[in-house]
Design a protein that fits this description.
alpha/beta; 8 strands; Rossmann fold
Length: 284
């Protein structure tokens, strides 16, 4: 297969990824970490054993590694996959150097698109991970990633997948129509959008995985005004691009003003997905 697929992931600006990193870190569920640690120990990886081998798919600037590596003990070896060389360089430069117990963390950068990754690439990997990734995939891409992970016998942890639900405080009559329009925008190009978690659970379940889901809501305004302002512009813009009639005039300006005055609360719901292969410890 070629190193770049015909349907690469959308590109994201480093400034946007930096702006959302703190909210991402606060939102990611920590409950998956205990069963993940048990699984890794069963594979002979972690403290007092060989290094944990992790493949971060669509790593962007590396926020998933910066969040996860310090939460796992033992030496770690990360493979960072992204199709954007600029983002990949940032990810490699800012990976943590040590794990939770002070063991070394190393990283190797791989300039690749997900459409070209196979089970052979993941041979020997203990964990496939990705953040804000699943909703960007098409069903075929999801199936390819799941089969590659299953072929390697590794676990997978996918964080911060959108589920199509946003809560505003106070609410506005145009909120439901905009949410529906945004969700349809997320499905453009055949991408899974808010259906991603359910689709991933079904695909991994068919491959013999145990599927666990955990809520991971973004909590935005009033605590995170700059991020909320940027998110509002993008969310409303995408919704109106999909359906220009989804909201009456002035909606965005109204919401931006409420945010700047500290009068708006926003919760953007996400789900984290941990999938564990039955008998995974048989794949050292």
């Amino acid at each position: 297969m070629s190193p770049v697929s015909e349907n690469p992931l959308p590109a994201f600006e480093p400034d946007w990824l930096a702006l959302r990193e703190e909210a991402d870190a606060d939102a990611r569920a920590t409950a998956p970490l205990d069963p993940l640690r048990v699984h890794l120990a069963g594979r002979g990886a972690g403290p007092g054993a060989r290094p944990v081998r992790v493949a971060d798919l669509g790593c962007g600037t590396g926020s998933q590694g910066r969040w996860l590596a310090p939460k796992l003990s033992g030496a770690q070896k990360w493979l960072l996959y992204d199709v954007d060389p600029g983002l990949l360089s940032l990810a490699g430069a800012h990976m943590p150097l040590t794990s939770a117990d002070g063991s070394p963390v190393g990283a190797r950068m791989c300039l690749r698109d997900l459409g070209s990754i196979t089970g052979e690439d993941l041979a020997g990997v203990d964990l496939v991970t990705g953040s804000a990734l699943l909703d960007l995939l098409t069903p075929d891409e999801l199936t390819a990633v799941a089969r590659a992970a299953a072929g390697a016998g590794c676990a997978a942890l996918f964080t911060l997948s959108v589920v199509g639900r946003v809560e505003f405080f106070p609410s506005d009559p145009d909120d439901p129509a905009l949410t529906e329009a945004f969700n349809r925008h997320q499905r453009r190009g055949g991408r899974l959008g808010p259906d991603a978690v359910g689709a991933a659970g079904a695909v991994f379940g068919e491959l013999g995985y145990r599927v666990l889901t955990f809520e991971s809501p973004w909590r935005l305004c009033p605590e995170r005004v700059p991020l909320t302002l940027a998110w509002l512009r993008g969310w409303v813009g995408a919704a109106l691009e999909q359906d220009p009639e989804a909201a009456a005039g002035g909606y965005l300006e109204r919401r931006l003003g409420e945010c700047e005055r500290g009068e708006l609360g926003v919760v953007v719901h996400h789900t984290d997905l941990l999938v564990l292969p039955e008998g995974g410890a048989d794949h050292p």
